[in-house]
Amino acid sequence: MLRPAYKSLRSLRSFSTTASATMKVLPVQARSDNWMYIVVDEASGEAAVVDPYDAPKLAQRVKEEGVKVCWAVTTLITTHHHNDHSGGNLAFLDLHPGIKAVGGSNQGPGTNTIVKDGDEFKLGSLDVKALATPCHTQDSICFFVEDKAKGQRGVFTGDTLFLAGCGRFFEGNAAEMNAALSKLAKLPEDTLVYNGHEYTTGSAKFGLAIEPENAALKGLFERSQTDKVTTGKSTIGDEKKWNVFIRLDTPEAKKATGETEPLKVLAKLRELKNSF
């Protein structure tokens, strides 16, 4: 089973390609802090890409890695329609014609397979489940990927859930974000979190402004100072320990916001983060 390890990307990759592994996830950076992903079912050789903003860079990485193990990209996944996530879709589809392009709406360029909450599909032997999480955008949708036989699982959260943070409420409200985060919090606690941006240092710093004595947050902040690739190295269980946007009932969150009702706490926390 994959387990979080705050080490280099090389260490993560070598760990995830052990003999027992089936699901392999490679983060690839775009722009200054966006994450794109290659997801491979090593049992079948089928692969998917997630949010391929920089299509040439990702396609080259697919080519470099795929030569070694004969991968075949069959699926493109879009977590939401914002350009820094979906803007490379058409270019990637030009480089890989005929593949399935999955998203929560047709606002993502090139989408040919629209999925809704609870829809499932296969990536080789891996099970993929769509989890609608409207708020950041109304078509925001997370993808839970699982190898049930090996006990490996991860969730691609786009701009809904960040490590120790959450997305801005661009097209939604606190009630929607609370529902989205609550849905993700119900996933198995060992589910690895693959988010849309490397915002971990800033998110952990804000979290410590709310919960200054939170040991888990302190550890995350310290690790983020030396490891610039934190995505995929922590779990849903960790988020419950350090994400203040999930921990709405703590005395610290209530004190910092001056609110007691959970949705008001969440709304105020997001306002505070916006200006932090």
UniProtKB/TrEMBL annotation:
Query: Pathway involvement?
Result: Secondary metabolite metabolism; methylglyoxal degradation; (R)-lactate from methylglyoxal: step 2/2
Q: Which Pfam families match?
A: HAGH_C (PF16123), Lactamase_B (PF00753)
What cofactor is this protein dependent on? Zn(2+)
Q: Which CDD domains match?
A: hydroxyacylglutathione_hydrolase_MBL-fold
EC number assigned by the record? 3.1.2.6
Q: Which UniProt keywords apply?
A: Hydrolase, Metal-binding, Zinc
Query: In its UniProt record, which GO terms are filed under biological process?
Result: methylglyoxal catabolic process to D-lactate via S-lactoyl-glutathione
Reactions performed catalytically: an S-(2-hydroxyacyl)glutathione + H2O = a 2-hydroxy carboxylate + glutathione + H(+)
Parts of the chain that traverse the membrane? none
Cite the Metallo-beta-lactamase domain residue spans from the record: 33-197
GO MF, one example = metal ion binding
Q: Which SUPFAM superfamilies match?
A: Metallo-hydrolase/oxidoreductase
Name the protein family. Answer: Belongs to the metallo-beta-lactamase superfamily. Glyoxalase II family.
Mind telling me what this protein is named? hydroxyacylglutathione hydrolase
From which organism does this entry originate?
Vanrija pseudolonga
The gene for this chain is: SPAC824.07
